[in-house]
Design a protein that fits this description.
The protein is mostly helical. The protein is built from 13 helices and no strands. The protein has three domains: about 70 residues, lambda repressor-like DNA-binding domains (434 Repressor (Amino-terminal Domain)), CATH 1.10.260; about 130 residues, no CATH class; about 90 residues, no CATH class.
């Protein structure tokens, strides 16, 4: 099953019925450009249109997916099965064809779903990029109009560029982009903090606190990534371990902050957070245990 074969078959059937691409498109309530793309093998019909296309062109959905008309049918084989051994063989062959057609239909549905998902990802990626770009342009124009130069706008502009670099791979490539986004975050977070420190010169705590928190945060994110890789078949267990890891990370963050701003390492709110985390971890472990037991 291929786009080219299906498209050529649609073209042959359409021409045999003396229909133009526009005629077929009008019957399906779509554009003739869509039909043209099908027939050139550039795209495949939406799964919701298969039944209508088959009816209009006078073939079955299975024949449409196979890109050719069937030479024998299950109905004919069933009608003659008691007469001759040949018909029994035809029936078995037809059953094999039906199974093959079902597989083709499932493959087509999966391919169609992936195509739709990719299209949505492309739309979301473009929308995300355009939104950030418009934000940058608006900030730059307003800053130039008020100050005559770039002052405060450098902060949202740099933040927007940083956000685009980090999130675009995930939006565009879904799971395949996670590793790329994490690598970009690991490499760029400290340079980004230096940029912020230079833009906000009145706050001298950005680098002392920001760099330490960035290192701890990046290490935590990579730990979670590795945990889910190791326990990829037991996501509940991975989630439980990851949530439990929050406790030592929070203690480490509090310890680092206590050295800089004289905050207590553990307070009442930390104790409450740890209790909630312990309950959540216990619930996930119990759920994982029952799932494994079944």
């Amino acid at each position: 099953m291929s786009n080219e074969k299906i498209g050529q078959f649609i073209s042959e059937l359409r021409k045999s019925k003396q229909m133009t691409q526009k005629d077929l498109a009008d019957k399906l309530n779509i554009t003739d450009k869509a039909v043209s793309k099908w027939e050139r093998g550039l795209n495949c019909p939406d799964i919701s249109l298969l039944s209508s296309i088959s009816d209009i062109l006078g073939v079955t959905t299975s024949e449409l997916l196979n890109g050719k008309k069937s030479s024998d049918s299950f109905v004919r084989a069933e009608a003659n099965i008691d007469d001759t051994e040949k018909n029994i063989d035809n029936k078995e062959e037809s059953i094999d064809n039906i199974e093959k057609n079902i597989d083709n239909a499932l493959q087509y549905a999966e391919k169609n779903t992936k195509r739709r998902l990719k299209s949505l990802q492309d739309i979301f990626a473009i929308s995300f990029s355009v939104t950030l770009l418009l934000g940058i342009i608006v900030c730059a124009i307003c800053d130039m109009a008020i100050s005559g130069t770039f002052t405060w706008s450098l902060f949202p502009i740099s933040s927007s560029v940083f956000a685009w670099i980090i999130f675009f791979p995930v939006i565009k490539f879904n799971k395949k982009g996670i590793l790329c986004s994490m690598a970009a975050l690991s490499v760029l977070i400290i340079p980004f903090l230096y940029v912020l420190n230079n833009l906000i010169k009145t706050n001298s705590m950005i680098l002392p606190i920001g760099i330490r928190m960035a290192v701890i945060g990046i290490a935590f994110i990579w730990c979670i990534f590795v945990i889910f890789k190791i326990f990829k078949t037991r996501k509940l267990l991975a989630a439980a371990i990851s949530i439990l890891l929050v406790i030592p990370v929070q203690v480490l963050i509090n310890f680092v902050l206590s050295k800089i701003i004289a905050e207590p390492i553990i307070d009442i709110w930390d104790t409450l957070n740890f209790s909630i985390i312990a309950i959540a971890v216990a619930a996930l472990l119990v759920r994982d245990f029952y799932i494994r037991k079944k």
